[in-house]
Design a protein that fits this description.
204 residues; mainly alpha; minor pseudopilin epsh fold; 2 domains; 3-stranded antiparallel beta sheet; 8 helices; globular
Length: 204
């Protein structure tokens, strides 16, 4: 294969183990099994695309917008690799003390008015989402904002770098919080590693 995604499950678990309060290690362990599935599926789809060789665009079984080999593989790849990258982001920015400092704190104050206002906005965004909420920075305007994803591959925003990923699928919190998504988001925010978030800011 031309490229194979690395399974970072062990490192991601080590990053958060014992460091996320009421979000339990057991939840993280089970959650990361899903991440491993996304890694394996991403690599499997890439291998299947590679085995196709040069596709024949004149063959409707190969290339057709209703249903075809290329459509199925390439749409499914966006879902699989989205799941891989979303989960790597989620676990990478957890395991901290929840206190933003330095450049990222200054950006939050500038664009949301205060850290408390930012947290309320992200919490509302997470409650409104069906799968994911992100904090991103627009590389053109330099502005931070929170946006929604309903699945692993829905509503990406062109030219935006995601800095923080909040998984609000039930598997991320149900075992610890049952249906209390708001309580889970509060606990998530209390354990964000803002140094890791700041490290994702685009370099000037």
């Amino acid at each position: 294969m031309a490229y194979k995604y690395e399974n970072k499950q062990a490192a991601l678990l080590a990053k958060v183990k014992g460091k996320t309060g009421k979000i339990s290690d057991k939840t993280h362990e089970e959650h990361l099994k899903l991440y491993t599935g996304y890694v394996n599926k991403s690599n499997g789809i890439l291998e299947a695309i590679e085995k196709l060789g040069t596709p024949d665009p004149a063959d409707p079984a190969v290339a057709n917008q209703i249903a075809s080999v290329i459509r199925n593989l390439k749409v499914d790849f966006t879902f699989a690799v989205g799941g891989l990258k979303n989960h790597e982001l989620y676990f990478d920015i957890l395991g901290g003390d929840g206190v933003a400092t330095g450049a990222i704190a200054e950006l939050i104050d500038r664009d949301f008015g205060s850290f408390e206002a930012y947290k309320k906005d992200l919490k509302a965004t997470g409650i409104a989402a069906r799968g994911w909420a992100w904090t991103g920075i627009d590389n053109e305007t330099g502005k931070l904002f929170n946006y929604i994803g309903d699945a692993q591959n829905t509503y990406p925003v062109w030219g935006v770098t995601p800095l923080l990923g909040l998984d609000v699928y039930e598997h991320a919190y149900y075992a610890d919080f049952y249906t209390a998504r708001a309580g889970y988001i509060d606990e998530f925010l209390a354990h964000v590693d803002w140094t890791a978030v700041a490290a994702r800011l685009p370099k000037a």
